[in-house]
Write a structure and sequence with these properties.
The complex is a heterodimer of chains A (about 280) and B (about 475). Chain A has about 280 residues and is of the alpha/beta class. Among the domains of chain A are: about 1-90, Elongation Factor Tu (Ef-tu), domain 3; about 100-210, Rossmann fold (3-Layer(aba) Sandwich), CATH 3.40.50. Chain A has helices at about 20-25, 65-75, 110, 115-120, 140-145, 165-175, 190-200, 250-255, 260-270, 275-280; strands spanning about 5-10, 15-20, 30-35, 45, 50, 55-65, 85-90, 100-105, 125-130, 150-155, 160-165, 180-185, 205-210, 225-230, 230-235, 240-245. The longest helix of chain A is centred in the last third of the chain and has 11 residues, at about 190-200. Chain A is globular. Chain B folds into three domains: about 5-135, Fumarate Reductase Iron-sulfur Protein, Chain B, domain 2 (Orthogonal Bundle), CATH 1.10.1060; about 150-245 and about 405-470, FAD/NAD(P)-binding domain (3-Layer(bba) Sandwich), CATH 3.50.50; about 250-400, FAD/NAD(P)-binding domain. Chain B contains 19 helices and 15 strands. In chain B, β8 (about 315-320), α15 (about 330-340) and β9 form a beta-alpha-beta unit. The radius of gyration of chain B is 23 Å and the shape is globular. Classes of the chains: A alpha/beta (about 280), B alpha/beta (about 475). The complex binds flavin-adenine dinucleotide (FAD) (2 copies), iron/sulfur cluster (2 copies) and FE2/S2 (inorganic) cluster (FES). One iron/sulfur cluster binds near residues 54 and 110 of chain B.
Chain lengths: ~280, ~475
């Protein structure tokens, strides 16, 4: 079950192609899976960036941060994940908007791909903007180019495209008088907030894919609750996409930090072989 | 064995030996050790084998109580367990978690004068089932020839497991779709290890799989497949929905989204299903908390409070709006909670949760209540006392004031009738308004009990079989029912 059929690494981001035919059959853009690497693991949400009903596989891009994503990073091709549950979440609303801007950072670079693809198929002008610290950290590039009318790059060090972030590219576009009918953003919470602030003044309808802490992913526990427009919503079923201009960002940031202490404990409890050495020995 | 009725009545009820309270409140091992065979026989001898069997009518699934107890007196423990199983497929579970004091034991003749002296039917049921499990290879039930019909069951809680167990014996191909990576529903993610060891549930599920039931874990119906997909794409002839209630309610007061405020579902799922009580071996974190406040007075609240103390909380307080007599929790659980040092603040309800700058809980403000006139249910209604408030410090709040119906399936099945609260509407046999779709358990009744969910499952299995084979009632009912 859930065999890992392909794996590669782009800096800290691990591409994993996983056998899950049922999920691939039902997947829609904007949805995610909840994954457990082993029987002992946490359940962690991962956006599905690509899927194929022919091969019965799904592709995720996992950014290695703490213990759970490290466990994914350590998996080997041919091995199996303990559990993959999905699709989860409400799919993105895809229709003819006109011009759609999609902004992606870290795992969102891969995550916006299916939304871009579907928007393109629905006849939209698709502009994708991706950000990274420096040039070699981009991934899933060719695919994204294929489904976008234009792709813009932003890097912190200016090594490719604009020196800056997604919102800087947007600001520039808007200055040039570009018209944007709908924006989608996916990435870390700070990025989502910054991008939403960039589209707010001129009132561009903005959807953000939130990444709150989740447990079951079915609306049963409330771990993922976020405040949007003054109302409590469960990100796993009502979302993960919400109106970026209505999210209570401070609360979301606070709730995301709830387990920082425990995460440090469990991370340190790992047997700490040196990962760099393992990589050199070709074991990872 | 030839005791007279008088002699039987003179014997005091045998309680089960337990881990001492001050010791058990730091571990997750089961609290009562269970009867020894001698204790079980002695307790069984208290049964008067009443002709009119009042206890049987107190049990929602009509376990043949005097008959199984008679077998226990003869030390035919395995036979006793198998007799119970003709009516109740999970006796090791029900013996432990049924609210016996309001069901079978409530009407036991031995308890007529003094309720506490009812025959310990639950304890005996548990004993017989444990004995069978521990001393016998599981007996494979008789399974009829495959009839070529496929039935899908959504949810592996008590209702779904019951439907599966019955239909596989009728010769159906049975497939369970379960959202989680483990089966059992509330029995594994809600009720804690110290009250219901997970190995008991695992054994039952393994036995079902051995008889040929297929369980697809990690499968959320409503997302992975809709109910219509199950018919059209996957070729099932009938679908049973047993997904439980499963949507937590939070209070409408300031502070509900602070760090440190959990639904009981989240808190218990972390600890039980994800085993965070074994953190960091199991990697799902749970916050321990120094001062824990649990809001509510049902089984779920007791389980949360007793989990908190075991995880290492210094002080655990239950805050409940009504009076002690009105607590819906099993009497044994309230008693155990008290013994374990949990404090009760009754006739009180939170009005605000306080926070620090980092968004963490620091305390709670509550309003005092008093009992007013009885409401429609006959319970005296709690009414707030004006200007009577108190505050206390806590850093963790667990909200267990009940749940709502999870709309994941009903929303994607618009042609199936639900009531105004979102629960699925069925006839007494579990038939929904949608053809070939059946439902039972908490998603129909709202939060109820394990045994009532199993009863609903059994009725639905019968309806499914009747509807699919068009055979009529009495003619087919097999003797193992
Ligand atoms: C709907 C949804 C979809 C998601 N899709 C993806 C995906 O496709 N790919 C992916 O890599 N992740 C995705 N995430 C986020 C991912 O689930 C978390 O990063 C993961 O659970 C981290 O687990 P961990 O144990 O490795 O790290 P943790 O131990 O939980 O975190 C390690 C440290 O990183 C910090 N941290 C946690 N999350 C973030 C973050 N997003 N940005 C910056 N710092 C953070 C923590 O505070 C902590 O200090 C998604 C989340 C949601 C809710
Ligand atoms: C903490 C707690 C303590 C309790 N204590 C007691 C007690 O002491 N005694 C007692 O009699 N009762 C007790 N109860 C109540 C009792 O457990 C429930 O009434 C009973 O479990 C309901 O059974 P069910 O079959 O309806 O569903 P559940 O047990 O709720 O199981 C439903 C299953 O369906 C799965 N599911 C949900 N949605 C989907 C979906 N879309 N697709 C696939 N699968 C899905 C869930 O993951 C779950 O496994 C307690 C409940 C709780 C929460
Ligand atoms: S199933 Fe429950 S109510 Fe029925 S006899 Fe057993 S313990 Fe009593
Ligand atoms: S009512 Fe009590 S004493 Fe009478 S048969 Fe039932 S268990 Fe025995
Ligand atoms: S993750 Fe549990 S309700 Fe959303």
């Amino acid at each position: 079950m859930y065999e890992l059929v392909e794996k590669s690494e782009i800096f800290n981001v691990h591409k994993m192609v996983i056998k899950a035919p049922g999920i691939a059959d039902s997947m829609k853009p904007g949805q995610f899976c909840i994954i457990m690497a082993t029987e002992f693991s946490e359940r962690i949400p991962m956006t599905v960036s690509d899927w194929s009903t022919d091969t019965g596989t799904i592709t995720i891009y996992a950014l290695e941060l703490g213990i759970s994503t490290l466990e994914l990073a350590r998996m080997k091709v041919g091995g199996s994940l303990y559990a993959v549950t999905g699709p989860l979440g409400t799919p993105s609303e895809i229709r003819h908007y006109g011009t759609v801007v999609l902004g992606g950072g870290c795992y969102g670079i891969g995550g916006i791909y299916p939304i871009a693809k579907a928007c393109k198929e629905a006849g939209n002008e698709v502009i994708s903007i991706v950000e990274a610290r420096y040039s070699p950290m981009f991934y899933h590039e060719k695919e994204l180019q294929q489904v976008s009318n234009q792709v813009f790059y932003a890097t912190s060090d200016g090594s490719r495209g604009k020196k800056g972030k997604v919102e800087d590219v947007i600001a520039e576009m808007l200055e040039r008088g570009a018209r944007v009918d709908q924006a989608f953003f996916m990435g870390c919470t700070q990025m989502l907030e910054r991008c939403s602030e960039a589209t707010r003044p001129i009132g561009i309808p903005t959807k953000v894919a939130l990444n709150s802490i989740m447990l079951d992913g079915t609306g049963m526990c409330g771990a993922c609750r976020v405040t949007v427009g003054g109302e409590t919503k469960f990100a796993c079923v009502d979302g993960p996409e919400f109106d970026g201009h209505k999210v209570d960002w401070r609360e979301l940031q606070q709730r995301k930090s709830a387990y920082t202490e425990q995460e440090a404990v469990v991370y340190q409890s790992l047997s700490h072989e040196c990962l760099a050495e393992k990589k050199l020995r070709g074991e990872l | 064995m030839g005791l007279t009725a008088k002699e039987r009545m003179a014997i005091e009820r045998h309680s089960m030996a337990e881990q001492p309270a001050g010791f058990r409140n730091r571990n997750f091992e089961e609290v009562p050790y269970g009867y020894t065979p001698d204790e079980a026989v002695a307790e069984a001898q208290r049964c008067l084998s009443c002709k009119n069997r009042p206890c049987v009518s107190g049990c929602p699934v009509e376990v043949p109580i005097p008959e199984f107890i008679a077998l226990v007196t003869e030390k035919r423990f395995t036979e006793a367990a198998r007799l119970i199983k003709t009516k109740n497929v999970l006796p090791a579970v029900c013996g432990r978690v049924c609210p016996q004091e309001t069901q079978c034991e409530a009407v036991c003749i031995q308890g007529k004068k003094d309720k506490t002296q009812a025959v310990a039917i639950g304890n005996l049921e548990r004993f017989a089932a444990d004995f069978e499990r521990e001393n016998n290879p599981m007996e494979a039930p008789e399974v009829q020839d495959k009839n070529g019909l496929k039935v899908a069951i959504i949810g592996s809680g008590p209702s779904g497991l019951t439907v599966a167990g019955d239909l596989i014996r009728f010769g159906y191909e049975v497939t369970i779709y379960e959202a989680f990576h483990r089966g059992g529903g509330v029995l594994v993610y809600g009720i804690p290890e110290f009250r219901l060891p997970k190995k008991v549930v695992e054994t039952e599920i393994k036995a079902l799989e051995d008889t040929g039931v297929t369980i697809h874990y990690n499968s959320v119906i409503g997302r992975l497949y809709t109910v219509d997909d199950l018919f059209k794409r996957l070729g099932f002839s009938a679908v049973f929905i047993g997904v439980g209630a499963g949507l937590p309610i939070f209070l409408d007061i300031p502070g509900m989204n602070l760090n440190g405020v959990f639904s009981a579902n989240e808190y218990l799922t972390r600890s039980n299903l994800m085993k965070s009580y074994l953190f960091p071996q199991y990697k799902t974190p749970v916050i321990v908390g120094k001062g824990v406040a649990v809001i509510g007075g049902g089984n779920v609240a007791m389980d949360s409070a007793r989990t908190a103390i075991r995880l290492g909380a210094e002080k655990v307080t239950i805050v409940y709006r009504r009076a002690r007599e009105q607590m819906p929790a099993r009497a044994a659980e309230v008693h155990h909670a008290e013994e374990e040092g949990i404090e009760f603040r009754l006739l009180s309800s939170p009005v605000e949760i306080f926070r620090n700058d980092q968004g963490w809980v620091t305390g709670m403000k509550c309003q005092r209540y008093e009992l007013g006139e009885p409401d429609e249910s006959g319970r005296r209604r709690p009414v707030p006392i004006e200007n009577s408030f108190f505050e206390f410090d806590c850093d963790l709040v667990v909200v267990s004031i009940g749940g709502k119906a999870n709309p994941l399936i009903t929303r994607t099945t618009p042609d199936m009738e639900v009531n105004k609260w979102g629960y699925i509407v069925t006839d007494p046999w579990g038939r929904t308004s949608k053809r070939s779709v059946y439902a039972g358990g908490d998603i129909v009744t709202g939060a109820a009990t394990v045994i009532s969910s199993m009863g609903a499952g059994r009725r639905a299995a019968k309806a499914i079989h009747e509807d699919l084979t068009k055979e009529n009632d009495e003619t087919f009912t097999p003797d193992w029912w």
